[in-house]
Structure to design on (169 residues):
């Protein structure tokens, strides 16, 4: 018995540490879809017809202007900036460069909610940030970009309150 507990503890440690070390935890795979492939990145324009209010809130938030920050610094082609100022960079079908994937600039909806093509096909059949482990899961997504180096003062849930589009409504 003791050995088993230890084994599970080790597994927990390993998988837990693996999650923390993940470069950008975009795929949120709990809820109805259990495999990792939630589909393709579709871009924010596709969300407007059904989520216009959230879209407008997002557009005027820092995440909706993250690409402009790179433009100000003339860094739109600097690979070391793209992971946190675009959507899905480094992942299959995600942002690659402006000329190829202009629809995936900025820290879009799918940066936090994951690729959404399946959601578009069937709106109810989609897993995303809402989960039994909501706060730690959301925090993990944020920390993928708000690293201690980039955002030394980042604190959850305070920073979520600054940009939230749903909680407490
Ligand atoms: C055709 C309409 C439609 C489009 C387009 C659409 N959604 Fe939705 N979305 C819905 C509906 C309806 C719900 C509520 C589903 C429910 O109650 O189960 C929803 C729910 C959600 C949820 C919450 C799911 C939950 O479990 O609470 C998220 C997140 C979301 N959509 C994100 C997006 C994103 C991102 C896009 C653009 C890529 C998008 N949606 C495009 C209709 C749409
Ligand atoms: C690890 C993720 C990450 C990377 C990589 C990254 N950024 Fe950022 N960047 C952020 C986050 C998070 C913020 C918001 C910081 C805050 O206020 O908490 C930010 C904010 C900014 C800002 C506005 C705030 C300021 O300091 O003026 C600019 C400009 C910026 N980044 C440019 C860049 C450039 C240029 C690069 C590449 C050389 C880059 N970033 C790479 C995550 C990143
Ligand atoms: C910075 C990360 C982030 C971005 C960017 C983001 N969301 Fe969310 N969104 C969240 C979180 C976290 C929640 C969970 C809030 C909750 O559980 O009440 C959420 C919840 C939702 C919900 C569920 C609303 C409800 O009342 O149940 C919808 C729909 C949604 N987001 C759509 C979008 C759309 C559309 C965009 C882009 C226009 C977007 N989100 C951008 C993090 C994000
Ligand atoms: C894909 C990378 C990425 C993810 C994921 C992400 N952010 Fe950001 N966030 C940024 C960047 C880049 C900026 C800076 C944008 C700018 O200055 O225009 C930023 C800015 C912010 C700001 C404004 C900071 C300031 O002081 O100006 C807040 C608040 C914030 N993010 C909260 C969150 C929260 C909460 C989450 C998780 C639910 C989250 N972010 C997830 C990249 C990300």
């Amino acid at each position: 018995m003791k050995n088993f507990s230890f084994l599970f503890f080790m597994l927990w440690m390993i998988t837990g540490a693996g999650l923390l070390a993940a470069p950008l935890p975009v795929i949120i795979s709990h809820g109805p879809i259990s495999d990792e492939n939630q589909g393709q990145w579709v871009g924010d324009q596709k969300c407007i017809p059904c989520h216009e209010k959230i879209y407008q809130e997002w557009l005027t938030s820092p995440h909706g202007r993250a690409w402009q920050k790179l433009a100000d610094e003339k860094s739109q082609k600097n690979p070391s900036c793209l992971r946190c100022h675009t959507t899905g960079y480094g992942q299959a079908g995600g942002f690659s460069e402006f000329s190829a994937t202009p629809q995936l600039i900025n820290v879009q909806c799918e940066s936090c909610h994951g690729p959404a093509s399946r959601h578009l096909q069937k709106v109810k059949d989609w897993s995303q940030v809402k989960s039994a482990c909501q706060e730690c899961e959301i925090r993990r997504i944020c920390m993928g970009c708000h690293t201690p180096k980039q955002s030394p003062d980042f604190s959850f849930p305070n920073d979520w309150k600054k940009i939230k589009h749903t909680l407490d409504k």
In short: The pocket of heme C (ligand 3) is lined by residues 44, 47, 51, 54-55, 58, 63, 107-109, 111-113, 129-130, 134, 138, 165-167 (CB under 6 Å). Confidence is low (pLDDT under 50) at residues 1-36. Helices lie at 2-21, 52-59, 66-72, 79-85, 109-113, 117-121, 134-143, 158-163.
